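Appendix B. One record, verbatim.
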Amino acid sequence: MSRYVIGVDVGTGSARAALFTLTGKMLASAVEPIQTWKPRPNFVEQSSEDIWQAIKTTVHAVMKESSVSEDSVVGISFDATCSLVVLDSNDKPLTVDIEGDNQRNIIVWMDHRALAETEEINSGGYDVLRYVGGKLSPEMETPKLKWLKTHLSQTWAKAEKFFDLADFLTYHCTGDDTRSLCTVVCKWTYLGHEGEHGKWDADYFKAIGLEDLADGRKIGTKVRPMGTSLGGLKQSIAEELGLTTNCKVGVGIIDAHAGGLGLLGAIWGGDSQGKEPSTAKLETALALIGGTSNCHMAVSLKAKYIEGIWGPYFGAMVPGMWLTEGGQSSAGSAIDHVIADHSNAPALNKLAESQGVTVYQLLNDEIERLRIEAGFASPAQLTKNLHFTADFLGNRSPNADPHACAVIDGLTLDESITSQALRYYATVQAVAYGTRDIVRAMNESGYQIDTMFVTGGGTKNPLWLQEHADAAGLTLILPQEPEAVLLGSAILAAAAAGEYGDLPAAMKAMSGRGQTVRPNPEVAAYHEEKFAIYRELYQQQQDRRKRMERFN
């Protein structure tokens, strides 16, 4: 009997599931939206019950589409956003919302309500901060936990378990309260390199006023690497999903890190099948997982401490290696916002609908028309007088500045599609320069990154792809399986089912290379100048903020 695995990905706006062969071929996939509440500025909330219902719908859909038998699915694993889930002593949802709605029991990763708590913790100079680039982000869990204790004391008193979303899902499916080394190291300040399986720093929790978490009982006393088997699905969950209790559940992972697994296995493309994967080879590559936000994953055999970039995280993606994680809190969301914020947006949407194409296609067509009209070999020069940064939700890396805002230099009163296309193009470039800035910081600290393995919605856009290659000056390699995040979860499922000797072996067997995009050397000097301006814009904004601090 053929054997298959299911990967489940819970992103910011939807849950997805896909069924894969053990060679990494996707046979079926499904997507279901999930509900999000934004009750006030900086507050973003979701429901664990709503997310579970969406997962059930997608798993049933892929089983129906693929027509495989339930007995043939040997493994399932989950990736999810690094969002905080709160449960009571009966495993029921507890509110994280000021209004008291218990269904809203998740503080979403992009929620920035805990800015003050983040700054308070960062001012303490705690040793655990060495492993997050020197500063916590409000996207991480301990500031959110501190906010809950301060502002929702009733929830805090009733809370029995706090989970990262991926860990909630594996607990829900198995009843096993094992936490992922990925989630707790990257977002909870767990010290994965200490001892056999890592440890919590109890003194840190006591120092920041979260002494009731110091024993680890509510946040996890058992931590294991991603893809470790947690046993089979509970009977009730197997029935809900239409699977069997023989389907093994793998320890989960953060969504971007699943993408890293799905991408970086392709670095061994061309190696002989019998040859064991060399993890050292991974140090020359970066995995870029694009979406609402961008994540940039690099791994090394030795720890690299880079100010302003998360990590080093031990064992948080590839076992035995240290992870360095850069990121942009607004990437795809920045591009979409700039398009929607233009006065021509309603007309553009109407035109796209009438022609049955996307707004990106229409804007790309306009950029190409402008290039031909100007007589340029490359469209890059069209933005020579338009300079953007894309820090609409702060700068996650390499500046670790949650107060940063986007800067736009060069606007006119033009309300046409031409103006809209140029602003869109300049934003794509700004996102690409943000990636270049992250790679610069990594390479200055010992990495030798010359290739990016990329996945995400942006990779379906040829302009986005070429601009990232050109602006960053790196070769881009797309995965053979475009849905690399789902593939990453499937790789964990295959490892949990015992189909491969270890995680790197599963990565190599199930990943492959697709399209290659090389940088255009003719625009290298142009992007060098534009990148310098990009960095100047951020520094100038920082200087202005300092000048105005006395008026707070």
